[in-house]
Predict the 3D structure of the following.
Amino acid sequence: MNSEAANAARCQGRTGTYEAWYVTVSEPARRRGYWFRYTTFNPAPGVHIDPHSALWGFRFDHENPSSNWGAKMSFPLDALQVQRRPFAVRLEDALLVRNGCSGEIDSERGRMSWDLRWDSREQPFPFMRSPWHLLSTVANIGAQPAIKVSGAIKVDGEVVHLEHVPGGQQHTWGSSHALEWNWGFASGDDFWVDGATSRVQSRLGRELVNTAVGAHARDHRFTSNGPLNVLRAHGEIAPDSWTVEARQGPRQLHVGVTPRRSDLIGVTYLDPQGGSRVCYHTEVADLELRLTQGDEVLARIRRPAAAAFEYASESPVPGLPVLF
């Protein structure tokens, strides 16, 4: 699978679905991060919410959380169009392509614009190998799990110029969100890690908790995304951290992604089947990664304030505000 296949639209024209393409960018030198989303929401019959597409933009500042920023602009559903070859998502004047993205949000919270380009060095990482993802109501792919981003981001008049900073581009879709989940992601010059622990309603009627995780650290690649792997891997779901232990033969991967609560921005994800999930997200969490084989440490990576973290559930977390 290449990035064009990973990003191909799965839900266009289908009622009872959602779909999102998103980009995460880390600015380690300034301990800032950014998150951009291009989304569709097409509710099931009987769900009385208008179908729509939307453009989302966020800034996270570890040194000054009071300057965290986020906004969303909604459009008619058919305003978002996806071209497969070459891949392109167009939403009015906003654009996401294989090697870049752009957009502008003008809202009551202020204005944000971005114009970014990147180089990608890794193949996609599906959170569940095909065709097993069909058993769940949600699917995720790290379409480009290691990119180097350059360009400009402007928030309320402040312009930031980026030069080869780390990031990633992801794709998710489904007929209903997971009931609860943690997601973690980070990349750098010599590594990437991507994955999630989710409590989902399977199409067979049972609730399942599964953990998918992939990483490339130093010269070592690790993937745990087969049907048995995701059930055997141990992952926690909590608003204060995502911790994972997964095995691949004699090797074991330990991942910890830990945010500060002050760095989380809460937003609401509508569900196509009705109801919603409250999602708390940051791009400036701390990462601890360790890949071992027996007593030998194959790779150890620490990145303060440079990882993406997300916690979501059907209910808000007491004491954590929701932006919208």
Notes: The mean pLDDT is 95. The two ends are 35 Å apart (CA to CA). The longest strand covers residues 138-155.
